[in-house]
Amino acid sequence: MKAQLLSKSVSKLMKKRGGEKMERSAWLANLMNKWFDLMNTRVNYGYNKDLIPYKDVHDPRLMWLSDTFINELDNWKGSTKGKNELEKEKQFLSKQTYAGLVMASKAMSELVKYLLSASPPGSYVCTRRINQDPLEAFFGQVRRTGGSNEAPDVNSYGQYQNIISCMKQYKQVKGSNVEIVD
Questions:
Q1: Are 78 and 147 in contact (CB under 8 A)?
Q2: Alpha helices, DSSP H only, in 39-182?
Q3: Per the database record, which ranges form the Transposable element P transposase-like RNase H C-terminal domain (predicted)?
Q4: β-bridge mates for residue 125, sequence order
């Protein structure tokens, strides 16, 4: 989605064709384009300097992620003050999206700083490969193991984790010459 909707080229088109009516939408597209780039740095970055891997804990892009980006969102959120809840919902992000963007931005900035400070000189961090999919998959499996229990307590969580780890011990190894018979 980012490549089509939240890009610099779409932002420019919005400004050119939409004028003042599209100015805020163009601003958002540009803001999110930069955010996506900084969250997806890589070795083959082409001409886009925001995609260069992080090499220094004092990289200004990390400050942009943890401070400037969040301040921009907060300023946008502040511009909806004095309006009723329905208007606010139409003019700003959902609470969950806002919280997720803030959390992801701060976490990525701190993670990159930690990785660089704990690594030998000359190291770099490509954020493109950092994701939480395996963690989400694990917690999804824990929720499924609990059946209808969508919010397990600590004890239930421990039991579900034990069940999952036992199930994995008996899983068939790919390419083996053994078949599991039920």
A1: no
A2: 60-63, 69-78, 85-91, 95-117, 133-145, 154-169
A3: 130-152
A4: 54
